[in-house]
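Researcher: Hi, I'm a grad student and pretty new to this. My advisor asked me to get structures for two proteins we've been looking at. I'm not sure of the right format, so I'll just paste the first sequence and hope you can take it from there.
Model: That works fine. Here's the first sequence with its structure tokens right after it:
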Amino acid sequence: MEKTQKTKPDKTYYQVIAYIMEMIKEGKLSFYSKLPSERELMETLGMGRNSVREALRTLENIGLVESCHGKGNFLVNHMGESLSSVFSVLLFTGESNYLEVSQLRRAIEVQAFAQAADRITEDDRNRFAGIILKMDTGTHEERVQADEDFHQLLIQCSGNHLLVLLMDALSYVCREEILMILENQAVEHVEQWKTLHRRIFDYLMIGDKEQGVDALLDHYRWGDSLLGEKSYSR
């Protein structure tokens, strides 16, 4: 008897994504634009109401659609939040660990530094200087926020939107990581943390890519050593 090959059922949200992509290509849709109504999607794509709603709900979970009660559905870019949840689950379930998070951040920031050194503006320099000041004089909570702001700004200065998206996704995990590093650490560790960030800052200000990347790598090596093997165990 011949075996019947099973095929995976089509996922309706793929059809909706394809339709959205077509509208973007035609210039009819962009981020934060309102999507066609459920009825319009039903008629255009030949779907039932339940299928359209399921597709929109899936896209909302992915971070591509935002539903506003009484106003409709809008195309958004909240994929960083969705990816952040994925990274958090991977850590919680032991499928990943803080060492792997650190390695991913390191790769992102090394590439970002090289691009940021060529693109940094005077306004960016002033923002970095303000963040460094908070690291020097702020409370514990302000320093944690300053660390996040420092690395986010470095990525933004690269002008690479995919790097920005990935760092946004890692922002919550990164915050937990720096909390682990700074919480209950000796004064000399906090001072070393400040020094490492100031070195990155100084080399970025003068556009020295080689020394700046070395400073970044020193920063990550130091952080990895403080987190220790217990933080990385699966």
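Researcher: Oh nice, that was easy. Here's the second one.
Model: And its structure:
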Amino acid sequence: MDIIIIGSGPAGISAALYAKRAGADVTVITRGSGALAKAEKIENYYGLAEPVTGAELEANGIAGAKRLGVEFVQGEVVGLSMNDDFTGLVVQTPEKSFEGKTVILAAGSTRLAPKIPGLKELEGKGVSYCAICDAFFYRGKTVAVLGEGEYALHEAEILQPHASKVMLFTNGKEPAVKIPDSIEVHREKVDAVESEAVNGMERVSGLRTENGASIPAEGLFVALGTAGSVDLARKIGAAVENNRIVVDADMTTNVPGLYAAGDCTGGLLQVVKAAYEGAVAGLAAAKYVRKQ
């Protein structure tokens, strides 16, 4: 494929419209309605004589993209990587993989982060957000994954060939997918990430649950909910600062062929800003494809 867009919100659809009109083959992968659909009323957007619901604005945008011939695939994206010869990007869903010359990340930002004592302090010291990046460092070790859905299961399965033991902590929720017997499941809430001094520095040593149990683990991989744009950017080595993807004026990341637009780049969390960045990213991606 020429361009794969992850996300069907204002940024993703705007990118699709501009890239398609620029002559590119465009596929949008979406897991369904996003933050826009939850807006009760929108009346500060150009061209609207009367207020509309977010769901209506979202539906109209998608319908317009489909009219131009943009392809849509329903699915949850759980992974992003380079292809074997580093000439394209591979987007993974639980069902299949898609390869594109370029990818535009437009799946929004993760607005909720787990408020677990010790989690932020131990990032990079046993707390990770990318199994494909860090699994190698946990060979023969006991690791935990925090999450309950397809994304968490995907991370756990990547860790299994490396770690001696993989545990899934659902943080008080029931698993949303079938978990293999080879993965130990803990359903209780996590109260804290414990640490101990190793070689003069603090490292993850385990998790403490709401019932007071202390469960040893040498690594914790956070995979709550679904993978947002920032999570996917981290997986492929794109620069991330303060939980936003770093882009230049063309919405280009530091990874060739990878673009980002919308809430995931920070700044004003508004439809108008997302639509603008999507347009820029779509045109830049189409130009990149023509040069290949």
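Researcher: Is there anything I should tell my advisor about the second?
Model: You could mention this: The chain has two domains: 3-110+228-291, 127-222.
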